[in-house]
Structures are given as C-alpha cells and as structure tokens.
Specification:
Layout (H helix, E strand, L loop, with lengths): L15 H15 L6 E2 L11 H14 L15 H12 L11 E4 L2 H7 L9 E6 L3 H9 L3 E6 L17 E5 L11 H13 L3 E5 L25 E6 L1 H4 L7 E4 L5 E3 L5 E3 H12 L5 H9 L3 H27 L4 E3 L5 E5 L6 H12 L1 E2 L1 E2 L10 E5 L4 H17 L2
Parallel strand pairs: 1-13, 3-4, 3-5, 5-6, 6-7
Antiparallel strand pairs: 2-8, 7-8, 9-10, 11-12, 12-15, 14-15
Helix pairs in contact: 2-9, 3-9, 4-5, 10-12
Length: 402
C-alpha cells in the first residue's frame, strides 16, 4: 500500500489565498450587484510595457521558423538573460556575481519552495512572523523544525537576531506582507549571525525594485560576507508585470558551501544546478527574451514608470489609513501597506466586515502567522481610482466603529 508524506497533514486546511477566494466567491454569489474592490492578492493590473511586448513578439516570430526555432533550453537559463541580470542587477551595484551563479526559473515562489530539497529534515529553520505562507508550508511539507522570529513594532518589523543557533533563516525585504525594509546595519547583523553559526540565509528580494531610499540595500550581497552564507531570490512578477508570464531567478554563489560531518565541503551552487537539471525544464525562451528586455534602456525606463505608479498608489493608501486613524507601515519602499485593525478586532473578523459592509477585499494579518493577528495587508497593485474608492470605503466603515 502506498504511504503518503504525513507532513502534509500538518498543513492548514487551505492555503491563505484560496480561503480568501472562497469567502469572496461566496459573498459575490449572494450579492451579484456588489461592486467588489480587491486589495488582497498582490496581482498586477498594469499591462506589460512596450519593450517587453516587442521582445515577446520577436521571440514568437523566431519560434515560427525552423531556422530560429527554440525548443528545450538550458535548465539554468539562457546565457543572454543571465548576463543581463549580472550587469543590470548586480555589477551596477558593485556586486560582482558571475552568470553561472544565476539560475533562471518560472518565479520566486517556486524557487523559495523548492530550495528546501537541498537540506535535510533535521535542520532548524528560522522564519520571520508574519510571513509569506510559502516559506512555512513548504518547510512543514519537508518535516523541518520551524522557529518563528516575531517581527513587530518593537523591532521595526525586521526581527531580532536569534539567541540560539539556527541552520536556515528566511528573510524577505522589502517585506511581504508588512512592507518593512531592512537597513544596511540590520542586514549586516543577520549576515554576521549566519557566518558565526554556519547558517544559510534564504533572502527573498522580489520587491527590491520598489526601494527608493538610497540607504536601503537592494541585495543582501551588498553586505560583505553574504556570498558565503546567502541565497537570493528575485522575480519579474511585480517588477515588470510577469505574474502571468512567469520568470524569475535565484542566485547561489559559488562561495556558498555546506560542511559535512566528515569535514567535506559541498557546493550548494553545484547541488542546485543538479536539482534543477533533474526536476525543472527551464522557463520558456519567450519569457526569457521578455525578461531580457527589462534591462534595455527603454525597458528600464518603462518598468520604472510602472513601479512608480504603484508606489504612488501605495502613498494614497498609506495616507488613507492614517486618516482613518489606523497605525500602519509600508507603502514607501514597498507595494504593501500593513495596518492595524480598528479597536483590536481580530483580523479575519475585520476581513469579513469589510467584505460584507464595504465590498472591499484585504488580506487578514492572521493568515501570515500568529504575529499578524490584529493587522491586515493592502496592496497597491489595483487600479488607482479603484484604490482611492476602496480607501474611502474603509475610512467610512472605520468611523462607524468608533
């Protein structure tokens, strides 16, 4: 008889965003005339920029001819994109990575979940709380021991350095869901901790394009020594609107090694390449040509304009939550705004109240972990005028609760 991985039985019954979709669908079915504004799931609304569209059309045309057709590509990505990433995202910030340290994927979500394949069940894993659910769920699936690191007002939502030795730590800055950013000094503390404890940092910087403060690092590799203790994940989803195109990448430096009990050092770069070669066929040629276009002068300017638009919407939302009298952070170097629920209301109760009384969908903070209770997340990816309307609805509802 086949045996299942019983770790799956330890998962919550339903993934956070599936639960939200279910509640919204139930409400919509019962209220067909409701004008629902969705501020919960962080899907983009602006179309792909012209430089990306042009590159995709050209790539499709290439695939229409036998002479230029592209079938299976390199599992770790085409050289043209890996080189563009090196120059555009790292060399420009004096981080001297090489193309063979970059692995192209179908998005950061996949890689942050799949990276656990490299690590044994016995590892102690530190995960910030509140947190993107994939980090928790995939480690539960793998049967690993999880140590939660609370992130709240008292530590600037950056988390305190643990006083115990952990083997793996997940960090995400700019943060999803809180919108918090990590200072250079704080990241240096995390890197020093990792080096001192032979710990691996899983650094999700999917939202680095939203950073406008010159003092905030875009990459953990801007911190000396990080190349010996950190894996970095990035995505084109929110940066360039690739949520439906699917393309991202993971950086595994060659200097990053794990030591076996007998003292042998193993390259994580080599292990990840072996894993990807076996279990992943690579992102499509078309999506990789589209991603390459992001690094052209035209692509850079167009993508920056899209990100600036979302940041403008984030400012409107943040200001609106402040007018409502709700404590909030984020929305300045990130597309997310993290706000307290009024009068200490449980976050799922506030979610249901907003949905049923104002037809506005947010994400309840409790869905991101125990430390998220009493908060809710709003995204800046909706249409700006719809976002303004949602803000006014929230303000009006909060007034009725005082």
């Amino acid at each position: 008889m086949a045996k299942i991985n019983t770790n799956f039985l330890n998962l919550q019954n339903r993934y956070l965003f599936s639960e939200i979709a279910s509640r919204v669908n139930t409400y919509a079915a019962a209220n067909p005339a409701a004008d629902i504004i969705r501020m919960g799931i962080g899907d983009v609304t602006l179309p792909l920029v012209p430089a990306v569209i042009e590159a995709m059309h050209k790539a499709v045309d290439e695939c229409a001819s036998a002479e230029t057709f592209h079938g299976y590509g390199p599992e770790h990505g085409y050289a043209f994109l890996r080189e563009a990433i090196c120059k555009g995202d790292y060399h420009s910030r004096s981080v001297m990575l090489s193309p063979d340290e970059i692995f192209i994927s179908d998005g950061a979500k996949s890689d942050t979940g799949n990276i656990g394949d490299l690590f044994a069940t016995c590892n102690k894993v530190g995960i910030t709380d509140p947190v993107y659910p994939v980090y928790v769920d995939t480690n539960v699936m793998g049967g690993k021991s999880i140590h939660f690191i609370p992130c709240g007002v008292e530590n600037g939502f950056m988390g305190d350095i643990p006083d115990t030795a952990l083997d793996i730590v997940y960090l995400c800055f700019p943060n999803n869901p809180t919108g918090a950013v990590a200072t250079r000094e704080k990241l240096a503390e995390w890197v020093n901790y990792a080096l001192a404890n032979n710990c691996i940092i899983m650094y999700d910087s999917a939202y680095e394009a939203f950073i406008r403060d010159a003092d905030i690092p875009h990459s953990i590799y801007e911190i000396p020594g990080a190349e010996r203790c950190a894996i970095e994940f990035r995505s084109f989803s929110k940066t360039a609107g690739f949520t439906g195109i699917r393309c991202g990448y993971t950086v595994v430096p060659k200097a990053l090694k794990c030591t076996l009990e007998d003292g042998t050092q193993v390259s994580l770069n080599a292990l990840w390449e072996r894993r990807q070669s076996c279990k992943f066929n690579g992102a499509s040629y078309i999506s990789q040509r589209a991603a390459e276009a992001v690094y052209t002068p035209e692509g850079r300017a167009q993508v920056k304009a899209s990100v600036d638009y979302y940041l403008g919407t984030a400012s409107i939302i943040r200001e609106g939550m402040q007018r409502a009298g709700l404590e909030c952070i984020g929305g300045q170097n990130a597309p997310y705004i993290w706000a307290r629920t009024p009068a200490g209301m449980p976050s799922w109760d506030f979610f249901d109240l907003l949905l049923n009384k104002a037809s506005v969908v947010v994400t309840p903070g409790a869905g991101f972990g125990q430390a998220g209770e009493g908060w809710f997340r709003l995204t800046a990816f909706a249409d700006r005028e719809r976002s303004r309307e949602a803000v006014e609805r929230i303000i009006a509802l909060v007034k009725t609760l005082k």
